[in-house]
Amino acid sequence: MTLELSPDHVEVVSLLHPLDAGLESAIASLHARLARDAQLTHTLDIAYRVVDSPVGKLLLAATDRGIVRVAFELEDHDSVLQLLANTVSPRILQAPARLDDAARELDEYFKGTRTEFDLTLDFRLCRGFRLNVLRHLPRIPYGSTASYAQVAQAAGSPNAVRAVGTACATNPLPLIVPCHRVVKSDGSFGGYLGGSEAKRALLRLEAAA
Fold it and tell me: What pTM was computed for the model?
């Protein structure tokens, strides 16, 4: 079936696109102003943005202390934001500027031009032995791996191999805190927040550099 438009209809349709574009621009401008005002008045506790990456869209969130969360799509970004609202603060806003450095460094990492991150991190979501494990992970050299047992030994609890696995599985800052470099003693990958294919891709990226 062919739909024929009269000249009047064509004129109406042609007017909709500039209006839609102008509305989107106005909304974006308003949102940016709200984010800017929230930061100036110290009413923004958590800023977030979503960035594209070779392993899917990544949610980045930061407090005034530093990066507090990096989340894969598999984790459900809406659920992650809700959990942050419940555990840290409900004053959350999409405010990309606070995450500019993190987005830039992640982009450099995926391009193979950055081997370590230089970002301030907020570890408030981690405690006890899990925090000890996460603080150790950046010491595993880029392009290398360590076993769960080796990490347990380095973290001061040689028998806590399962606890190391739990710390990696609940790491709130994957990629930046490289739990993907921790593998099983037999060399197999083990689990990963972003899925096995993401872990494989990250290790392949680092091995090729």
Answer: 0.80
Q: Which residue among the candidates 35, 106, 179, 205 is catalytic per the annotation? A: 179
179 is catalytic: yes
What span, in angstroms and rounded, lies between the C-alpha atoms of 1 and 208? 55
pLDDT at 6: 39
- What pLDDT, in 10s, does the model give residues 72-88? 999 999 999 999 999 99
* H-only helix segments in 41-173: 77-87, 100-110, 128-136, 148-154, 161-169
What is the helix (H) or strand (E) element at residue 20, kind and residue range?
helix 7-40
pLDDT at 24: 63
Q: Across the strands, what pairs with 49?
A: 60
Contact (CB, 8 A) for 146 and 181: yes
Closest among 159, 154, 111 to 132, alpha carbons compared: 154
Short-list 114, 117, 191, CA closest to 148: 191
9-15's contacts with Cβ under 8 Å and 24+ in sequence apart are: none
194 three-class SS: coil
Burial label for 130, CB within 10 Å (0-12, 13-18, 19+), is: buried
Cα-based angle 202, 204, 206 (whole degrees, multiple of 5): 70
User: Residue 60: beta bridge partners?
Assistant: 49, 70
Q: Which of 67, 171, 59, 69 is nearest to 121 (CA)?
A: 67
